[in-house]
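Two entries, shown back to back:
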Amino acid sequence: MSLNEKHVNMDIEQSTNPRSALDPHADSAAKFLNEVQEYPPLTPEQEKKLIRKVDWIMIPILFITATLGAVDKVALGTAAINGLRTDTNLVGQ
């Protein structure tokens, strides 16, 4: 037998369903993901609708977060000017 004609004996499991070949030691999340079906690809119309829905939820949250951050910054700056550091014995910045 030449080097090119080597026969390799591999011990592997054969499965007709690629999703059924799950590691028996997998956690519950991996087992759940193995059992659920994947969503079909979105059409451009469905994708546009989904993006619009996410935007309607995320943009107000981001706006409120940015507004509260700005209000907090102004309030701390005003308090520092009016003596917060000396009243509370803060040292450093």
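entry 2 starts here
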Amino acid sequence: MPTLLALLGTGLMAIVIFAPQRAPEPRTTVSFAPPPSPPVDRLTASDVAPDRWASVDPVFDRWSAAASSAGVTWPSLIDPRAVGCDVAGRRALADALGTVGGAWAAGIVRRALAEETDAGVRDALGAALARWG
């Protein structure tokens, strides 16, 4: 009799452990995403008025030179591609040289002061030298 009870208990425990569980109740999920946008009407080529300038090629009879100082060559000491940079670019280079400091930058700033023609850039170069003392 005790053996029968032990087998019956083991069988019931096996059913409880290995039996499939109930399906969980469905959860309601909340989404904070915006609602989908309405469909967009697509335009066709016949809906759009023809552009009268679409097929016209621009004609350039004269090209004007870029606004740069031809006599200023000190930016090429930093980068050879910077030879023709404008006043704003040279002013930015002067500020950057003032930030960098050191003997390398001091030599470039002294040469730039000797050949710079723009007063604003000269002021920026002077401020760069003043930062180093």
